[in-house]
Design a protein that fits this description.
Layout: H1 7-14, H2 20-32, H3 37-59, H4 64-72, H5 78-97, H6 114-125, E1 135-136, H7 140-151, E2 166-175, E3 178-186, E4 192-199, E5 210-214, E6 217-224, E7 227-233, H8 237-252
Antiparallel strand pairs: 1-2, 2-3, 3-4, 4-7, 5-6, 6-7
């Protein structure tokens, strides 16, 4: 008798890790339960985007700043620690690529890293069909209270309704200098935007808008007061600039 098809089997199917016998069983089960196919395709898209985002990091050498510290002798084992950290990074990405929904955001060197991590979070969560956010817009009061408490300051999601985007909800992400908030929006065409908000722990000076294109994702980002902000999407640079201005002016009020 065949074992029941589990969620682990479905993730293995999405990752193409099933043996031939189990593959036949899962495909037969999916034929009888076609409603699960869209979720599996979303997992595969997420996996591809994670590979696209993280593979260059894994191929990169250990940063010179870490090796420099090791050579100075401040930390006798720092070279080994750095090497192990790179292996750990690979393990964490493998963990993510096998369907876990928790994202690890790696320590930034400066505010210029803000768009990269915002784009990674955008790429990970916007394809999600069933779990794009942790708390939906139907519980906006709870969402605001929760994120405000965790980040230590009142954090209302800006309204983008005048540009056709409605709040879906938000989630909490881990960051280097504290926790990070992400709000997600969607329009009638199912285009999604994410607003990534991280504490300005390095006390960067307030900045004007900056633009980055992170592997096809348009990101406008800036620092203002206690937070750094990054708005990510795929609607074109001019449209994103207009939306970023709308976000900025609401937080300035």
């Amino acid at each position: 008798m065949n074992a029941p098809i589990s969620e682990e089997d479905l993730h293995a199917y999405a990752d193409k890790r099933l043996d031939a016998d189990r593959l036949v069983q899962v495909e037969a089960w999916l034929a009888a339960h076609p409603q699960h196919k869209a979720e599996i395709e979303a997992w595969r898209t997420q996996n591809e985007r994670l590979h696209h985002a993280f593979d260059p990091v894994l191929d990169a050498p250990i940063p010179a700043r870490l090796l420099h510290k090791a050579n100075r002798g401040n930390w006798p084992a720092l070279g080994k620690v750095a090497s192990m950290s790179w292996l750990l990074l690979g393990g964490l990405i493998g963990y993510l690529l096998h369907g876990e929904r928790e994202t690890v955001i790696f320590p930034p060197d400066a505010v210029t890293s803000l768009p990269r991590y915002a784009a990674i979070a955008h790429a990970v969560y916007t394809p999600e069909v069933h779990h794009p956010v942790e708390v939906t817009a139907k519980e906006e009061a709870h969402l605001v209270g929760w994120l405000s408490k965790r980040l230590g300051e009142k954090l209302n999601p800006p309204s983008l309704a005048e540009n056709g985007y409605q709040l879906i909800g938000g989630r909490l992400l881990p960051g280097d200098e504290g926790e990070v908030a992400q709000f997600m929006y969607e329009n009638e065409l199912s285009n999604r935007l994410t607003l990534y908000i991280q504490p300005n722990a390095q006390h960067e000076m307030t900045s004007h808008f900056r633009y980055a294109n992170e592997k096809g994702i348009d990101v406008f980002y800036w620092v203002d007061g206690h937070f750094g902000y990054a708005l990510s999407g795929n609607t074109g640079r001019e449209d994103m600039l207009q939306l970023a201005r709308l976000v900025y002016h609401q937080y300035e009020q």
